[in-house]
Amino acid sequence: MTKIAPPNLPNSLTIFRIIALPFCAYALFKNGGDDDNWRIIAFTLFFIVGLSDILDGKIARDRNQITEFGKLLDPIADKAMLATALAIVTGKQIGRASCRERVSSHV
Question: What's the predicted TM-score (pTM) here?
Answer without folding.
Answer: 0.74
